[in-house]
Recover the amino acids of this structure.
């Protein structure tokens, strides 16, 4: 089995903008290349060892997966920090796998995100939004996002694994449900992905597993059974679940992801004014538990990155 790093430092990943939230939802969502670079550098300075990056059209904020859309902020981030860069292969649900794979194939980053399956991708957190909802058979469809599917077939996953692994890129393995852990086990058994696995368990996105502490415990228990000592466990909680789920992970010896891609909030009804604000909040939880955050170089050692 792969020896885990001797130190129990906690790796913070910050996902600074994503593709799903829109500028109308928060004035603090980074959109332009400069805003994305600022957000990544501030998140790193606040304690994030890794930053997860998407690109957007600077005018309308729409997701943009063209390598040239990433170039300006990647250059600034690399010139001004040694943060570990994790480039998305998820892009947006509307994109083809070829389109989604382009930036990683071009930039050959240390880390790329990898979604371990296809899924219905609900925009809004689970039930909270519809307390008083009366179903109207005349208008069965709730939201435009009700028809949104993120497609990532076994062939697409193999394609991403083979393309990126050839560049020495390792993966942030997004598991939105228990079945995704078994899919990872399958590709590991096929030798298409090597340990240590960096598993990013995703909680509270409609279409995936819920945000309840028992869901979190069940994911961890199952990952321990399937991967033993060959993996690092990290979590992201969507929306209001971000910090509570991060706290549970840290208490269980895990790692955390925050950032405006996953939640626009810092507290009930309070928008986060920056990504760094969320990094500082989760760092307080980590240090409050007597633990310390990992530096980017410690994360490189833990995840055996190419540097
Ligand atoms: C829940 C997150 N949106 C997962 C994600 O970050 C996917 C990706 O970029 O590949
Ligand atoms: Zn992403």
């Amino acid at each position: 089995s792969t020896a885990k790093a001797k130190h129990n430092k906690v790796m913070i990943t910050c996902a600074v903008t994503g593709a799903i939230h829109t500028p109308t939802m928060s004035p603090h969502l980074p959109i332009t290349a400069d805003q994305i670079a600022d957000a990544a550098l501030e998140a790193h300075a606040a304690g994030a060892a890794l930053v997860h990056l998407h690109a957007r059209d600077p005018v309308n904020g729409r997701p943009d997966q063209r390598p040239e859309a990433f170039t300006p902020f990647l250059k600034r981030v690399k010139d001004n920090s040694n943060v570990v860069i994790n480039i998305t292969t998820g892009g947006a649900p509307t994109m083809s796998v070829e389109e989604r794979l382009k930036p990683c194939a071009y930039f050959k980053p240390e880390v790329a995100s990898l979604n371990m399956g296809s899924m219905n991708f609900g925009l809004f957190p689970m039930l909270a939004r519809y307390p008083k909802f009366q179903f109207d058979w005349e208008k069965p469809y709730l939201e435009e996002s009700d028809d949104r599917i993120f497609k990532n077939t076994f062939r697409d996953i193999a394609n991403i694994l083979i393309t990126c692994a050839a560049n020495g890129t390792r993966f942030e393995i997004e598991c939105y449900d228990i079945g995704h852990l078994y899919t990872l086990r399958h590709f590991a058994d096929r030798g298409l992905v090597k340990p240590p696995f960096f598993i990013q368990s995703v909680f509270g996105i409609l279409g995936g597993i819920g945000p309840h502490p028992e869901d979190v415990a069940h994911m961890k228990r199952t990952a321990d059974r399937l991967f033993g000592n060959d993996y690092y466990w990290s979590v992201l909680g969507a929306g209001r679940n971000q910090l509570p789920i991060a706290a549970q992970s840290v208490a269980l010896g895990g790692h955390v992801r925050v950032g405006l891609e996953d939640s626009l909030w810092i507290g009930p009804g309070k928008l986060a004014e920056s990504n760094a604000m969320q990094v500082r909040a989760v760092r307080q939880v980590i240090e409050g538990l007597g633990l310390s955050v990992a530096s980017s170089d410690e994360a490189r050692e833990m995840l055996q990155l190419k540097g």
Observations:
- Residues 15, 18, 52, 54, 88, 90, 113, 261 surround zinc ion (ligand 2) (CB under 6 Å).
